[in-house]
Design a protein that fits this description.
Radius of gyration: 24 Å
Oligomer: single chain
Strand order of the largest sheet: 1-2
CATH topology of the largest domain: Growth Hormone, Chain: A
CATH superfamily of the largest domain: MFS general substrate transporter like domains
Structural class: mainly alpha
Helix content: over 70%
Number of helices: 15
Length: 472
């Protein structure tokens, strides 16, 4: 008599205890980040840069852009090498150290608010150069910590979540990120103007503390606490090994290509969104915020449904299908001239982007040996940033110079179809990049055939969740 195959073990809404704590800590931290990011911009632009006569100093835009530069530089200066050390270090301990460091850094920024008299300044109040210098320094160091935190968290998720549930884990992570985008910014301005910048900073510091406490109670399996056997001690060699693997492994190099090409399209939309809303949709600039909220709502809905879809159709097919869908949506969105239909497409774009992101993480974890996860993640992040910068710079240049006065009527005989202008032409070009990314994915992933997990050294199974030793 044939025996039935054992039923698949049911998991809870947050998969398991370990991932539940990781997810909750990251969700709170993301809200704190959103509050912090907008707080810095408003603090510099409307308080630090305010002159005695009440006007805003002309250097305010440059000072605000300095925050972006300080946050971006670690992606290139630190990110690639951070992966080498993440692969060496205990993943859980790395997360704890980075959260502790960021908590202290944000609290240090309170000195720039004048919360306590500073003896080395006249009247005990910090000068503008000191305030800006401390802000840039803290942002740079906090972003540096993030270069270690992100890959370590990805590796730890791979340790505590089985392969068949990683799409669900990615879906939960995307949902919390979308929710943070909706919740965080509306909290920032009331905290800043009603209670003071100190409280906005304390909220972010508290969010990192919550993340620290959540990671601290994660019971990592033995595999997460051991260092793989292999040659150690040569940072350059380990870094080159990671690069070689990323660019020669078919799946990882495909993910790199998809992310890079798609980012070339996404960057232009981000750079020209304000002008698209005002010039093409003929609506006030304040509606940019509404589009952002609708996109976030779409992302939440996408996070709810995409995890289930990924389990049924496979992450490979979901990835290819979502990129083709993104190309179609952005092609149509670029032609919009009214706000209502554009909102519907923006909602769909949020759903699709989350579906795309959800499919990438399981693929990356499945194709990457555990000993390489830090380095592979550290290659992916800077490449995406480079593509974004190229796209933003090129879109701004084309819109301001080459295509500034461009207008072309598209007719079929005597029938007028539409008129091309500078913004919609560039955004149509962005949609082409999404289409190229989709074709590249379909060819490289061979029609969505499932990717087999990479062989790993023998380790204690994830289910054997032993308590982490004290002092880890």
């Amino acid at each position: 008599m044939a025996t039935n195959a054992p039923a698949a073990r049911k998991v809870g809404p947050l998969i398991n205890r370990n991932y539940g704590f990781l997810w909750f800590g990251q969700a709170i931290s993301l809200v704190g980040d959103q509050v912090f990011d907008l707080t810095l911009v408003v603090w510099i632009a409307s308080i630090i840069a305010r002159q005695p006569d009440g006007s805003i100093a002309p250097w305010a835009p440059l000072a605000v852009s300095g925050v972006l530069v300080a946050a971006t530089l670690p992606f290139f200066l630190v990110g690639p090498l951070a992966g080498v050390f993440v692969d060496r270090w205990n993943k859980r301990a790395t997360l704890l150290r980075m959260d502790a460091a960021r908590t202290v850094l944000i609290l240090l920024l309170l000195l720039a608010t004048g919360i306590v008299p500073l003896p080395f300044f006249a009247g005990g109040q910090p000068t503008i150069p000191f305030q800006l210098g401390l802000i840039y320094g803290v942002v740079f160091l906090a972003s540096t910590c993030a270069q270690f935190f992100g890959p370590a968290r990805l590796a730890l998720i791979g340790d505590v979540v089985a392969d068949e549930y990683r799409a669900q884990a990615s879906s939960l992570a995307q949902g919390s990120q979308a929710l943070a985008i909706i919740i965080g910014p509306p909290l920032a301005a009331p905290l800043l103007f009603s209670f003071g910048v100190q409280w906005a900073l304390l909220v972010n510091a508290a969010s990192f503390l919550v993340s620290f406490l959540c990671v601290n109670v994660v019971r990592a399996p033995q595999a997460a606490r051991s260092v793989e056997v292999g040659a150690r001690g040569n940072v350059g060699r380990e870094f080159r090994d990671g690069l070689r693997f990323a660019f020669t492994n078919r799946i990882i190099s495909t993910i790199l290509g998809i992310a890079f090409i798609a980012a070339l399209g996404a960057g232009a939309f981000n750079a020209l969104l304000v002008f698209f809303v005002t010039e093409n949709l003929h609506t006030p600039v304040t509606n940019v915020g509404i589009m952002g909220a609708v996109f976030g709502l779409g992302a939440i809905i996408g996070a709810i449904i995409a995890g289930t879809i990924a389990q049924k159709m496979g992450v490979e097919r979901l990835l290819i299908g979502s990129i083709f869908a993104a190309a179609a949506v952005f092609f149509v969105l670029a032609r919009m001239t009214s706000f209502g239909p554009a909102l519907v497409l923006t909602f769909l774009a949020g759903v699709i982007q989350v579906a795309l992101n959800i499919s990438l993480t399981p693929l990356l974890l499945r194709a990457t040996p555990r000993a390489m996860i830090g380095r592979v993640a550290a290659v992916l992040n800077p490449s995406g940033q480079v593509a974004q910068l190229i796209s933003v710079g090129l879109a701004g240049y084309l819109a301001s110079t080459v295509l500034r006065n461009f207008h072309q009527s598209v007719d079929v005989g005597s029938l007028h179809l539409f008129t091309l202008g500078p913004i919609d032409t560039i955004l149509t070009g962005s949609a082409v990049f999404f289409l190229l990314s989709a074709i590249f994915a379909a060819v490289r992933l061979r029609g969505g055939a499932p990717v087999a997990p990479v062989p790993e050294p023998a380790v204690i199974p994830v289910a054997a969740e032993t308590a982490a030793p004290a002092g880890e």
